[in-house]
């Protein structure tokens, strides 16, 4: 496998990982009742907050798992 294929595969895994964890986070955040914090009839703003929180949390979790995966692959160089 060439270097370009490896880089492409890493990019694809990273994109899917981020999208997966953003979707999972969005689903999990639906359990919170943040509607009580916001003013009435602000549906778009509430949905926007859900989306932004999902992106922030999901990306952080995805980065964590991608880094752990990368580091565990490098452990072979320790021995």
Protein described:
By secondary structure, the protein is mainly alpha-helical. Helices cover 75% and strands 0% of the residues. The protein is built from 2 helices and no strands. The protein is elongated and about 60 Å long. The mean pLDDT is 91.
Can you lay out the helices and strands and say which pair or pack?
Elements: H1 3-29, H2 43-74
Helix pairs in contact: 1-2
Search tags:
2 helices, 79 residues, mainly alpha
Sheet-strand content, in percent, reads under 5%
Please count the helical segments.
2
| Biggest sheet character | none
Judged by helices, strands and strand pairing, the structural class is mainly alpha
**What proportion of the residues is helical, as a percent range?**
over 70%
Radius of gyration, rounded? 18 Å
On the 0-100 scale, what is the average pLDDT?
A: 91
Low-confidence stretches: none
N-to-C order of helices and strands:
HH
Instruction: Based on Cα principal axes, name the global outline.
Output: elongated
Give the tally of β-strands.
0
Distance between the amino and carboxyl termini: 25 Å
Brief account:
The protein has 79 residues and is mainly alpha-helical.
